[in-house]
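Translate sequence into structure tokens.
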Amino acid sequence: MRELTVVNIQKNQVDTIGQFKVLQYLKKNLNINSFKVYLYDRNTIKVIDSNYQSGYFRYITEKKDVEFYDKIPKEFENAKGL
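Result follows.
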């Protein structure tokens, strides 16, 4: 898991298309600068807010949509890794 810097976020510097889609979604819908942002796996970005609450945003290829999870589902654990 790698933390994204402000520069990484501004320049959309991620490793995969799935991460790019999630980052675009986050930038459009949230004040992303108030979160710590981590690349979790090839389709998932983990965010941690100022209260240390975390959430996972995952790009679902089949739906072409981003979904939010409080906890990472077990089926995503096997897909972890960049």
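Note: The mean pLDDT is 91.
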